[in-house]
Amino acid sequence: MIETPYLLFLGDAPDMLAAKVAIGIRDWRPDHAVGQISLPGCGADLGLTEMTLAEAKAAGAKTLVIGVANRGGVISAAWKDVLIKALEMGYDLASGLHNLLRDEGDLVAAAQTHGGTLHDVRVPTDGYPIANGVTRSGKRCLAVGTDCSVGKMYTALAMDAEMQKRGMKSTFRATGQTGILITGHGVPLDAVIADFMAGSVEYLTPDNEDDHWDLIEGQGSLFHVSYSGVTMALVHGGQPDALILCHEPTRSHMRGLPDYTVPSLEELRDVALPLAQRANAACKIVGISVNTQHLTEDEAVKYLAETEERMGLPAVDPYRHGAGRLVDALAAI
Amino acid sequence: MIETPYLLFLGDAPDMLAAKVAIGIRDWRPDHAVGQISLPGCGADLGLTEMTLAEAKAAGAKTLVIGVANRGGVISAAWKDVLIKALEMGYDLASGLHNLLRDEGDLVAAAQTHGGTLHDVRVPTDGYPIANGVTRSGKRCLAVGTDCSVGKMYTALAMDAEMQKRGMKSTFRATGQTGILITGHGVPLDAVIADFMAGSVEYLTPDNEDDHWDLIEGQGSLFHVSYSGVTMALVHGGQPDALILCHEPTRSHMRGLPDYTVPSLEELRDVALPLAQRANAACKIVGISVNTQHLTEDEAVKYLAETEERMGLPAVDPYRHGAGRLVDALAAI
Fold it and tell me: Do A288 and A315 touch, CB atoms closer than 8 A?
């Protein structure tokens, strides 16, 4: 559990694209961020109050979150100055970078001296059980995609936000480093040991009130041969009551696999539903989330209408038009 | 790669059941074992020559393999005496035990002093890539099961032995600790980090001659909610040209999951084949391997005949009747 609120470190990010994590926190957990801190030459601006470490500390910030990708895979001397000063002032640090904070001797030393915690959210922190497959109380919704990076995290976050707005009981359950940094907790599923994958998902989505929904962040795709095993663990460990099918209609091949075509929504439906029903016989597909960022508004509306007609399920782009109809579909279960 | 030949350590095994690893080596790689070594009170006997460490060393043994499960999850003082003496005499040690040799300070010290290697085959030794899904040359056969522990390893080993006998080109590819100890190499798939599972299977079954068959050891089951992600990585990372369906007909529920029924062979076929064809469009199901150990000979023959008729595929128990017909089916591809 990462202590909130955060100060968001943007470093010397060349552009907004590099600040994906910080943007996610600003958009989905604005209450978690007291402000932002940048280095000279930073090309990203979240529009939050720019603060010094001391100002943010006075405003209550507990954790400095690295909200930006680093260049060249090293933590630069300029970054280190800020990170060490933060530890000296009593901050914890949180990072989803590939190179771990815990592998940096000076950060480890400063954390020990000042009693700070280094959160490397790419590394599992808990001992997970082997999945037992026992039916859990409460309800769960899982986003599954025709490919990787089609909007599964966004869909689950948008549905959770809409459910909160309606006063429904819901929790977004993060399974990747961006989601973990946004919400402060979760399971970095792609870093879990094979035997414990499904068990870590059971652990993440425990028994709950009968009318509570876990919105589980999806990973990979059942059709992506590099990561399908991770997706399978979500489908079985998550015991979903509801699946949302996620799709990006302009992709010419699977992400990173030029020889693999993207399956249709029908193919995804026909593979995912029987697999999910193995762990939860009552599982239903309730809706379709389409990432229409590469379509014009007219194209998007037309594509969504055609998809809805063809599949017999509500089809929406939650970024463009909101997640309301997906939540309606969940609420109707 | 574990150096052969082995001396097989039986310790104080209470019975033959506890000596599963040693039995596997004796049965499948008899040339790998120069003899056996037991402690007083040992209730297992492989029928190999009982040897002292010195005698086996003189006979060429390079590695002392722990061929037995340990009681209570500790490596006892009586075992330690033999293991340390072996290291002092220049042996390597190999083990598939849950408690690792490398976690025992005295073994580590003796190995360092005498230049020996400690092989803990439950722990991955190589850095595996992320799977790239690129089509590889050569042919691959994967055993998939309706449940865990239905005879997938036995089936692949029996087919490999039959192919060797016929002069066909084949390699058994181990994916679990018993298989790795039997053959001296492999990937302990259940201990691989999630993101690298399918890549480790690609690494294990690389490009090969066009008429060479990898017989890939299966793990788990697509229908076993605890381990299905591991199986999925084999189905996609293995790019099988041929699947063998494995089944144990008397099981009343999935292993370790009392609330889960065992699927039919038809259900396994209908789920496994489309998933496998994602990575290899030419994949076929070529035969059925039934573990009939709990049936009489008459019952077994009747069950196999009925299954063969029903499924339209050769159905055999390779332990009872040999793997010849499964190899015939592979050769006919």
Answer: yes
Q: Decide if the complex's ipTM is over 0.85.
A: yes
Let me know how long chain B is: 333
- Cα(A8)–Cα(A31) distance, rounded to whole angstroms? 12
Chain B interface residues (partner A, CB cutoff 8 A): 130-135, 189-195, 197-199, 222-223, 225-233, 236-237, 256-257, 259-260, 271, 274-275, 278-279
Which two structure tokens, joined as six digits, stand for B32?
Answer: 């790998």
A284-318 b/e with 16+ CB inside 10 Å = b? Answer: bbbbbbbbbeebeeeebeebbeebbeebebbbbbb
| Residues of chain B contacting A191 with CB distance shorter than 8 Å | 193-195
Per the DSSP assignment, residues forming a β-bridge with A140 are A214
Interface test with B, best of A228, A235, A261, A269 (most B CBs within 10 A): A228
Mutate to test the interface with A, among B130, B200, B227 (most CBs of A within 10 A): B227
Rounded Cα distance between A188 and A123, Å, is: 7
Render pLDDT for A107-125 as a digit per residue (tens, 0 to 9): 999 999 999 999 999 999 8
Q: How far is A259 from chain B (nearest CA, A)?
A: 8
Tell me which chain A residues have a C-beta less than 8 angstroms from the C-beta of B134: 259
And the tokens for B23? 């039995």
Predicted confidence (pLDDT) per residue in A158-175, tens digit: 999 999 999 999 999 999
Q: Minimal CA–CA distance to A126: which of A200, A38, A67?
A: A200
- Report pTM: 0.94
Instruction: Identify the helix (H) or strand (E) that includes residue A94.
Output: strand A92-95
